[in-house]
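How a chain folds remains the central question behind the approach discussed here. No coordinates are needed to read the tokens, only the vocabulary itself. For completeness, the protein is quoted in full, as a sequence line and a line of structure tokens:
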Amino acid sequence: MSSDDGDDCYYAVESGRSLGIFTNLDDALESTLGYSNARWKKFWNFEDAEEFLRGWGVIANRMGQDYMGGSWFWKAYEAMNPSDDVIVAFCDGSALRNGRQDCTAAYACLFPHDEGWNEVRVLNEEHVTSNRAEYRAALVALKQADRMDPNKQKALVVFTDSELLHNTMKMWASTWSRNGWVKSNGSPVKNRDLVQQLVNLGRNRGVMYRHVKAHTGRSEWEYEWNDRADGQARGAARDADNGVW
């Protein structure tokens, strides 16, 4: 993405009257001057501006570009607040006897602002692992988002306590895709079938994968919902193992 103000600068406003990424400094200043605890920063490319916002739990909607007096503006939203513009999902997977042939696994995808879309399932495939359960949960988030919002106008925030899922989608998947799904050491990407689906389904929608620590016992919103997803996935795996699912 490129700005239209001649110097290709992007101004990310994390706290202000309007949250988002501006290509015009005056617009960014209008949003922040005189605003209590305003926070913004200048970047030379859109991706760095977007990453700055993500670090504060704010996601820019790439589909929501507004033309403002000769400049561009990408509106952004706080991920943890209910909004008509953001879909929030908590994803988790659980496995018993992970790595063994008799492994039983399940996953949960919970939507705190619209629980009617929640999905909890047992993994029913030939090679069952905890990692595949984590990826499956994230796939549910993307597929449900497409059902809720087929025109991809809303941003999606996926909370996960899986460092593998978070790092795969945030740091590695785009490189693997460009390199033909081969790692830098020449080995094939594990679980390519699921990772490739995640990449493809995430196209043309603003998607943020946000890592949250597991089993903290803390009462903040994101920890509480992560614990709920964990409990749902664990419970389903136990029930399946006991033959009651």
